[in-house]
Amino acid sequence: MKKIALFAAATAAVLATPAMAQNVTGTITLNGTVAGKCSVTSAPAGTTFAQTVNFGELAKADGTLRSGLSTDFSTTPVQATVVCNTGTPKVSVDANPMVNAAFTPVPTGYANTINYTANVAVATATPGTVNFSNATTAAPSAAIAVGAALANSANNVVITTTGFATPAATDILGAGSYTGTITVVISPT
């Protein structure tokens, strides 16, 4: 009986002794990606920005192109807030002349086309501003690197115009509506 009691006490002591601690380690790996992208954050937000500039009457009393169109263009700021999540965005500009397609054929001494240069100023994070331009008489500009990330600030893209002119300074503008476009493409790389 003593042997049974001694065996029971020894078994109880072994069971009461804590086991050696044993650690378990788990590793969880988190992965994800962010695609390079640019977006417009000023209203309306998305992937495009648009604005219409209405010059009203384009001709002076003598029928030739009036001056001041560049000033008129800048009185309504054409700007956007664009963000790109890369440090290597590119910009291209394509300016198309203002044309009165209904005024054809165009007689000598008259014009149905108004040329100009579109200018795009892009604020960068460095800080600084990089300027891009395209004349309506030239081919569209190729995508050119900004050289830095875009500034994370409001209205970091500003469009202006200069040099409005008819093919000859004495050309009389044909009556009708004139329409032109400026296309600015900002890509992440």
Descriptive terms for the model:
189 residues, 11 strands, 33% strand, seven-stranded antiparallel sheet, mainly beta
Describe, in short, the structure shown.
With about 190 residues, this protein is mainly β. About 10% of the residues lie in helices and about 35% in strands.
Mean pLDDT equals 91
Question: β content, as a range?
Answer: 25-35%
Quaternary state of this entry equals single chain
Q: What is the H/E string? A: HEHEEEEEEEEEE
Report on the architecture of this protein.
This protein has 189 residues and is mainly beta. The chain has one domain (36-187). The chain contains two helices and eleven strands; from the N terminus they run αβαββββββββββ. The strands form three sheets. Strands 2, 4, 6, 7, 8, 9 and 11 form a seven-stranded antiparallel beta sheet that branches. A hairpin with a 3-residue loop joins β6 (113-124) and β7 (128-135). The radius of gyration is 34 Å and the shape is elongated. The N and C termini lie far apart (88 Å). The model has no long low-confidence stretch (mean pLDDT 91).
Produce the secondary structure layout.
Elements: H1 2-16, E1 38-40, H2 69-75, E2 78-80, E3 82-84, E4 90-99, E5 110-111, E6 113-124, E7 128-135, E8 144-145, E9 157-165, E10 172-173, E11 179-187
